[in-house]
């Protein structure tokens, strides 16, 4: 497989991204192969660089993935190794906190593992986490720089119902770390809502302790047919930070349901630590509800709805389609038996 990949690297071969994805998956799941590949990366560069990894990182794999610069397989593997080390350190701290229910790795940290994460120190991939917490305790996270102050600023807005979660970030050794502190009651309310009959966007409010310099545009919002409906955030400066409404789920002008920012994070099978059953059971409930809504609309594809779908490894999209088919089978049997 690796030799086949080398033959098509930096070409327009339709097999290139599939082979790259297969290698990334194997590196993630096969310890012996991962050991071999990492040993290769640290081996001699044969006069072209200190190591083979230095050489391979500089070589272009191809630019067939739309959007941001596509990293080489070698760059993604090295970046993933660094991200995982940072994550283990943060996870060990978070799992000692009694109010932390689950830790979810979101974004390319999960779906791009060994495949589409960058090590470029001018533009490294972020480490993105969502932390489900049973209560807001500013004193619980003092190990993270500025986190206590961010939670203290967020708490009064949360208690008044003016904000539902906190977006907090800091920089660790040049890498941006982003943590969303999502109260479990907010998470459960999002998952338990009946989306089959909604006719307008469902929004919640984010509190960000460090305001963005310009209004955010959440561009990759798709319906079940893959049509895009961007959402333009309208931030409001408040004492201690910024409030912005973000979409949990959306509805297009034609009345079709559109994947919102909140649930898009859960649609690429993110890594979960802590209470995995709590997280998975609630997301599964949402997916059953969404499948029913798409059926009421006359059809729609889970895999067409997820953001970054053009950058994701093919097997994640295949898994989404298989899961939707299984859910629809269950719904059919339940209706037939009922």
Helix content: 40-55%
Structural domain count? 1
The N- and C-terminal alpha carbons lie at a distance of: 49 Å
Please tell me how large the radius of gyration is.
21 Å
Continuous helix count: 12
Give the low-pLDDT segments.
none
Number of distinct beta strands: 11
Mean pLDDT: 90
Order of helices and strands: HHHHHEHEHEEHEEEEEEHEHHH
- The quaternary structure here is single chain
By secondary-structure content and strand pairing, the structural class works out as: alpha+beta
Give the strand content.
Answer: 15-25%
- Taken from the alpha-carbon principal axes, the silhouette is globular
User: Tell me about the biggest sheet?
Assistant: 9 strands, mixed
Question: What is the element layout, followed by pairings?
Answer:
Layout: H1 2-8, H2 16-29, H3 31-42, H4 52-58, H5 73-94, E1 100-106, H6 108-111, E2 127-133, H7 147-159, E3 165-172, E4 175-183, H8 184-192, E5 202-208, E6 217-218, E7 231-232, E8 236-238, E9 241-251, E10 257-259, H9 261-264, E11 272-274, H10 276-296, H11 302-305, H12 314-337
Parallel strand pairs: 2-4, 3-5
Antiparallel strand pairs: 1-2, 1-11, 3-4, 5-9, 6-7, 8-9, 9-10
Helix pairs in contact: 1-2, 2-3, 4-5, 8-10, 10-12
């Amino acid at each position: 497989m690796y030799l086949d990949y080398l033959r098509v690297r930096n070409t327009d071969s339709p097999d290139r991204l599939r082979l790259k994805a297969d290698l990334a998956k194997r590196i993630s799941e096969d310890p012996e192969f991962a050991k071999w590949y990492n040993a290769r990366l640290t081996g001699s560069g044969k006069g072209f660089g200190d190591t083979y990894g230095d050489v391979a990182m500089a070589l272009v794999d191809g630019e067939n993935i739309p959007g941001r610069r596509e990293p080489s397989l070698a760059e993604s593997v090295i970046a993933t190794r660094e991200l995982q080390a940072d994550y283990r350190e943060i996870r060990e701290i978070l799992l000692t906190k009694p109010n932390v229910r689950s830790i979810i790795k979101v974004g390319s940290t999960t779906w791009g593992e060994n495949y589409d994460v960058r090590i470029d120190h001018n533009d490294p991939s972020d480490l993105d986490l969502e932390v489900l917490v049973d209560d807001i305790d500013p004193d619980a996270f003092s190990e993270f720089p500025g986190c206590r102050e961010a939670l203290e600023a967020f708490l009064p807005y949360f208690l008044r119902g003016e904000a539902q979660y906190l977006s907090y970030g800091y920089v660790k050794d040049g890498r941006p770390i982003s943590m969303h502190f999502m109260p479990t009651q907010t998470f459960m309310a999002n998952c338990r809502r009946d989306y089959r009959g909604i006719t307008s966007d469902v929004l919640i409010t984010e509190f960000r302790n460090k305001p963005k310099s310009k209004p955010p545009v959440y561009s990759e919002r798709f319906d079940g047919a893959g049509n895009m409906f961007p959402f333009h955030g309208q931030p409001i400066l408040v004492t201690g930070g910024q409030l912005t409404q973000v979409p949990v789920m959306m509805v297009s002008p034609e009345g079709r349901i559109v994947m919102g920012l909140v649930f898009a994070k859960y649609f690429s099978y993110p890594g979960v630590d802590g209470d995995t059953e709590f997280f998975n059971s609630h997301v599964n409930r949402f997916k059953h509800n969404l499948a029913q809504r798409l059926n009421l609309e006359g059809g729609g594809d889970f895999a067409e709805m997820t953001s970054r779908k053009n950058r994701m490894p093919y097997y994640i999209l295949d898994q989404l389609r298989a899961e939707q088919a299984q859910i629809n089978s269950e719904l059919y049997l339940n209706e037939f038996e009922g």
